[in-house]
Amino acid sequence: MPLDNKNEFNERSILQPVITNTNEGDEDESFDLDDLLPIIGEFGKYQKLLVFGICLPACIPCGFCAFNQLFMADTPEEYWCKVPELLNHTTKEQRKFLAIPNDLESNDNGAFSKCQRYAVNWTEILEDTDINYIEPNVSWPLEACKNGWEYNTSEIWSSIVIDFDLVCERDIYPTIGLAALNVGGPIGVYLFGLLNDRAGRRTSYFSCLTTLLAGSLMTSLSTDFWMWAGSRVIVGLTIPAVYQIPFIISLELVGENYRSFVTVMTCTFYTSGIMLLACVTYLERDWVKLSYYTSVPFYAYFLYLFVMPESPRWLLMRGRLEEALKVLQTMARVNGHEFPADIKSRLEAQISRDKLKEKKKHINVGLPDLCRTPNMRLKTILITLSWFANETVYLGLSYYGPSLGSNQYLSFFLSAVVEIPSYLVCWFLMDCWGRRWPLSLSMILGGLACVITVMVPDAAVDETLYLYLLSKALLSASFLIIYPFAGELYPTQVRGIGIGVSSYVGGLGLIVIPFVTYLGKENLKLPLVIMGFVSVLGGFTSLRLPETLHHRLPQTIDEGEEFGKDWSFNECCSCKAEPQVPSQTASYENLDVLEDNATSDIELEMKASSSISRRNRPKSVIDERTPLDNKRSQRLSKKRLVRQMSVMDTQKTEDGIMQLTHWI
């Protein structure tokens, strides 16, 4: 620093001791709420009330509205052409015997055709012959149903299929409705993501909730298929945003050490919501009432207007200091901690500095940077393929559950139950065995479980269901891994872009997969075999990716190109990730490993910096150091690292603000 600026530097150090760090290299480092959370409580009573009272219940409407239409579109096993002329003169069995030919393509010799009827003039026949003496003639001409259908309503008496006659040449319409739901997802993530960043979490959440309930109300009031399908697009706009927004608020308010726990609990509650949906659909078979029962209770969520806080991180980014302080002070009070008195001055000074400081010039990066170099291009392709396979097969299996077994409600319930233990086991394996092998094995074994169902006899309904449940459990585990694994593989410089690209390409599979499950109408096991091959392919592609546990994470695109460049087959065969020799610039899953090896260097750096600083500060400033100052000093060197955590964070802006991602 030039000599003529020395006095100016000393004066600034005295006036702004809480902002200017003792090292010149840290001069621009911003105050981080992660420094404050250990003082006011990382996961105290306030965060527990927030997580268990707001975040986790917010998962339930997402699961309800994502899967309730599977049961709205139930198709009765038996239906036949309606013949209006016979309605007032015959019973159902008589009408089928007289007007409906046998189904020659059915294995059941006594089955009646579902889509054809005899093309005769029943008015003339009834005028000439008594109904009790009429015998059908197999030589009569046939025609397609032109007056609608009659249905056997002994088991299924209400569905959109019955009300809108979605059978025969229109039997693909419910599948189109399911695809319409998934079309809305990427659009909603983009729109509510913009609102989330510009208007805040609270505004975005309640707008999303309003959209969800409006779409559900429109679903209940639908009078034809296209109105119903349009309502599902509106509902789809809010999935998964309706639970990601409060999830983001929770992640931003809990300490780093508890974010994995919040993530796993969120997945568990989402699954619990699906289990609850299975019970609701079993008890209520009327599709209109089902739509009401799976949406009206969530009007109570508007009571969150009085208790849901705005994210203080977002408030600080917007310069709304008083509101941010109010949230943080409430957090400290509820957690039983004293709020540091000097925080307000720190934040005021930081906001003033940020307004006056020239914006740093950031290097513009985009999608081409992911594919410019060979190794980055290969990893991007492999990550995207694995993501596509994982997300597509997971959701496809979720959709296909009711089609298997002897009871669709029990099958759907069990398909959700098996996810919970898989989450817990996966959480443990990720930090012991790394990411690559648990991801690959779960996808390969899950895919094989699907494929071998083709070897099971058609009559072995229960055995097919067991294989399906095994596959669903394994795919659920891989679904928990793919997100953090991808986030660790992409360099920090392009992480948001990379995750966004992979998740949106994966989202395209959600539009296609309903048409794969539709094939099960002709062959029950065909969709399982297709999804099994896709899962196995995705599992093998992920084996080529480098392991990230105990490895330094890439920061720049150049580092991303080098990371995993020396991949070998022997490395692929190594199942357990071994800790690497730590370095001062490394990033590890367990920072304690790094801390033990770097403590001496950090202490020397801090002592030297403290000695220089004390020579330039009056004693009054030195004595005013608070516990937060000490905590912050201990964390400064660590904050230069990019912490590698087994947590499914959403992508972030340059300011560290979390964003929505199309991830269900």
What key attributes describe this structure?
two-stranded antiparallel ribbon; transmembrane helix; two-stranded antiparallel sheet; MFS_trans_sf; MFS_dom; mainly alpha
User: Biggest sheet, open or closed, and with what strands and sense?
Assistant: 2 strands, antiparallel
From the alpha-carbon coordinates, what is the Rg to the nearest angstrom? 30 Å
Q: Would you report the number of β strands?
A: 4
In round numbers, the mean pLDDT is 79
How far from one another are the termini? 52 Å
Overall spatial form? globular
Order the strands across the largest sheet as they lie in space: 1-4
- The amount of beta strand, in percent, is under 5%
> Helical region count?
30
Helical content, roughly? 55-70%
Low-confidence stretches: 1-29, 581-625, 631-649
**Helices and strands: which structural class?**
mainly alpha
Describe the structure.
With 664 residues, the protein is an all-alpha fold. The protein is 60% helix and 2% strand. The protein has 30 helices and 4 strands. The protein has helices spanning 6-15, 33-40, 45-55, 59-67, 69-72, 92-99, 122-128, 160-164, 173-198, 201-220, 225-236, 241-253, 259-283, 287-293, 312-317, 321-335, 343-356, 367-371, 374-400, 408-417, 419-433, 436-451, 461-489, 495-518, 526-543, 557-562, 569-573, 591-615, 619-623, 627-639; strands spanning 79-81, 116-118, 142-144, 149-151. The protein has a two-stranded antiparallel ribbon. Strands 2-3 form a two-stranded antiparallel ribbon. Helix 3 (45-55) runs antiparallel to helix 12 (241-253), helix 4 packs across helix 13 (259-283) and helix 19 (374-400) packs parallel to helix 24. Residues 1-29, 581-625 and 631-649 have low confidence and may be disordered. Residues 606-634 are annotated as: Disordered. Keywords: Membrane, Transmembrane, Transmembrane helix. Residues 620-632 have a biased composition (Basic and acidic residues).
